[in-house]
Amino acid sequence: MQTVLIVIHMLIVVAMIVTVLLQRSEGGALGIGGGGGAGSFFSGRGKANLLTRATAILATLFFATSLGLTILASYTRTQKSVFEQPAASAPAGEAPKDAPQSGNLIDQLKKLDQTPPAPPAPEPAQAPPRTQ
């Protein structure tokens, strides 16, 4: 079902691109275009012609298929969050000694917070001051 909806979505996208590119520019910002004659197919700025109606219909279909794809994707999703999935395990025999072994990511972080901090490293011995 999702593949069919994706194909329909892509066809709508291509059709919408073609209809937008076929429309004549109003040229408001550039000072070009516009001004067709009385018998022109694209005459009248405020009139909804065939291409603008087709663009509006295709845009509505685009949003509908986008919502449909989003709803379908939410039904097929297995994990709700990255934090709820178990941590990736290391290859057999190579697990670090201090790594938590079970639970989700939040439980592992809590266990790491509960471990005592490592003792501070001893300071290096300082040389005695020079006397002259």
UniProtKB/TrEMBL annotation:
Its main location: membrane. Belongs to the SecG family. PANTHER family: PROTEIN-EXPORT MEMBRANE PROTEIN SECG. The chain crosses the membrane at residues 6-22, 50-75. GO terms for cellular component: plasma membrane. Residues 116-132 have a biased composition (Pro residues). The keyword Iron does not apply. Involved in protein export. Participates in an early event of protein translocation. It comes from the Bacteria. It is found in: Cell membrane. Residues 84-132 are annotated as: Disordered. One of its GO terms (molecular function) is protein-transporting ATPase activity. It is a multi-pass membrane protein. Signal peptide: none annotated. InterPro entries: SecG. This is Protein-export membrane protein SecG. GO terms for biological process: intracellular protein transmembrane transport; protein secretion; protein transport by the Sec complex. Keywords: Cell membrane, Membrane, Protein transport, Translocation, Transmembrane, Transmembrane helix, Transport.
